[in-house]
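Batch queue: ligand-bound targets. Current item pairs a single chain with zinc ion. No template structures supplied; prediction is de novo from sequence plus SMILES. Inputs echoed for audit trail.
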Amino acid sequence: MSEFTGSCHCGEISYTFKGEILRQINCHCKNCRKSSGGPYLANIFVSEGNLLIKGAPMEYQHLADSGNQMTKKFCGNCGAQMFSLGSGRPGIVSIRGGTIDDLEIIQPAINIFVSSKIPSTPLDESLATYDKMPS
Ligand SMILES: [Zn+2]
Ligand SMILES: [Zn+2]
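Prediction returned. Tokens below.
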């Protein structure tokens, strides 16, 4: 069981999580890079029901390469990306790792879409890597 809090940069949106973390994935795909502004994105996947959000994030939708409709939630004041939901996995939300307060929570298990990573981004050699999305 994990328990942690997080917030956007300005603090207008915050959240509390209590439950099991389902999966932690560092994603190097173009969508994650472009939406976060970072070299890759630490995705912390959890059940939506275990996440209590304070404030009202704005939403932005786009189609993933898989054809799934993705909804990204972000702070309308500071613009920080907070959460992502996909139509392919109802009820599952990805928390953007950089918004978590307790840094020890972030323990990625795998790196995915390394085929589109920024060449200079170092990879943790102890983690499994996948060129695309593992099946
Ligand atoms: Zn904010
Ligand atoms: Zn991605």
